[in-house]
Amino acid sequence: MKHGAYVMSEVQSIREAFAEASSFLSRSGANEPQRSAQLLLEHVLGLSGAAYYMALADPFPGADREVWEAMVTRRGAGEPVQYIIGEQEFYGRVFEVTPEVLIPRPETELLVEAILRYSAELWPKEQSLSAVDIGAGSGAISVTLAAEAPAWRVCAGDISPAALTVAARNAARHGTAVDFRLGDLLEPFAGLETDILVSNPPYIPGADIAGLQREVRDHEPRTALDGGTDGLDPYRRMMEQLPLFPAPPRLVGFELGFGQAEQVAALLTATGHWSEIITIHDLAGIARHVIGITR
């Protein structure tokens, strides 16, 4: 084994390649080494699901060896699998991801579910609503909303031109029409009639970033992570910018970090715009989303 690099043994089955790579990634300190090895293998071999498991006894194809070694080496150095293979699944759809965008997380699917559920309570099913997503990133939230609620007009903003380029490609990939706008938080949407506001903004306190897993700290875009001194700056500023809308949205949904739910709920309550504030917990039991509703 070269220093820091993964070099595959000479004669191996796919199963043995998986075991060897898993061991290498574990020694390298990579998060979820076995899951990482499987995702990389599936990508290299072009297999998934049952086809992958049926191929485990087959010889590892020599033509793929160089690409495989390079990918495992990158993962061993801490680069997230999603950036190596260039995609991540979200809400049943595959999204392109690059180092310019945050990798979509499973817990954010719960935010999309909540927006769809509460909107169905507030408006007739086929009503054309206007939804704004702040911090578009890969477009996971906005593209999913546009796909799940095709009658809606969905807009999304980001301060990163590179992120909006990725998001636009994802919108095209899934056949959705999303109005992407470059700018800071609500500013690009001044004057827009908005029924729904949704956001997964940067919420990590700046001083905490150095202590994050290296996969996040060293590879995901800092602008999508750093929420200021206490992590709450984007929420405060969005509440301050609400007068940019002709009227406050009847439904708002925010994703947030550990221990922030009470403070974010208080920020929404202080505006006096939403009659009902709901906190949603993720699968780990963490208060992960705050929803504001005007019925």
Task: Explain what you see.
It is a single chain. It contains 11 helices and 9 strands. With 295 residues, the protein is an alpha/beta fold. Strands 5-4-3-6-7-9-8 form a 7-stranded mixed sheet, with helices on both faces. It has a two-stranded antiparallel sheet with strand order 1-2. Helix 7 links the parallel strand 3 (130-134) and strand 4. The longest helix is centred in the middle third of the chain and has 17 residues, at 106-122. The model has no long low-confidence stretch (mean pLDDT 95).
What's the gist of this structure?
The chain is built from 11 helices and 9 strands. By secondary structure, it is an alpha/beta fold.
Largest sheet composition: 7 strands, mixed
Q: How do the helices and strands follow one another from N- to C-terminus?
A: HHHHHEEHEHEHEEHHEHEE
Number of helices: 11
Q: What Rg is obtained from the alpha carbons, in whole angstroms?
A: 21 Å
Distance between the termini: 63 Å
Helix fraction? 25-40%
Based on secondary structure, the structural category is alpha/beta
Low-confidence stretches: none
List the helices and strands and how they pair.
Elements: H1 14-27, H2 33-45, H3 49-54, H4 65-76, H5 81-85, E1 87-90, E2 93-96, H6 106-122, E3 130-134, H7 140-148, E4 153-158, H8 161-173, E5 178-182, E6 196-199, H9 214-217, H10 233-241, E7 251-255, H11 261-271, E8 276-281, E9 287-293
Parallel strand pairs: 3-4, 3-6, 4-5, 6-7
Antiparallel strand pairs: 1-2, 7-9, 8-9
Helix pairs in contact: 1-2, 1-4, 2-4, 6-7
